[in-house]
Amino acid sequence: MDRLLKQILLYLSVLMIMVSAVLPGMQVYADNGSNTAIEDVSDPGILPDSAFYFLKGWGRNFRLILAADNMEKARLQLKFTNEDALALKKLCDEGKYDAAAGNTGQYLAQLQNAVRSMEMLRAQLGDNKTRELDDRLEQNYLRQQAVLASVLEKAPEAAQQGLLNAIENSNKHIESYILARKGQGQSNRIQTQAQTQVQTQTQQGQGQGNQVQTQTQNQAQIQQGQGQGLGQRAKNQSK
Asked: What does the H/E/C string look like for 111-141?
């Protein structure tokens, strides 16, 4: 036991030294005015395109090792899933749509980890003691879908498919869990809410695009009319 504790302390010390050494160069997300948050998470931490992204995985694994019980581990897995959804949004906010589309797999894998942790906890403690976490999983999932849908409307067509795949595949992970836990009715309701959020954001994006197109066309017509007016005036003056 003493040997294990020494190894853990040594690992923690090395990790802290590495983090402090590279912290000034890390690419992290400080939410400056956008107020984008999922539950209590507003900072996704190190982004997937950072050279130091591996430290994030190390830190997460260490926190899971130190977790007091499976309940705390499940809460951490939910938190990590929220971070990964916000990381995709941050990449898109910075115009790195290809990087976001290429890293949707990390979000999906983490969501699956969260669902598995919830399944294990439910098998261990029963439905009554996990109901609060079940509700949090549902609400967090819906918020994650809203965040992904908000960047979907802005993404170029090449990156949209990757983000859509993340949304659709995450639906599958959640659907089976909610179906087993709360039945078909609740599963259908959650899926409908998630789909409505995506459709709403897509329609808003199309509406904004149409508005910009209309404004551009109106400006072109005005300029054309002004040009014709000037041409007619010059013609009249020459007479």
From this structure: HHHHHHHHHHHHHHHCHHHHHHHHHHHHHHH
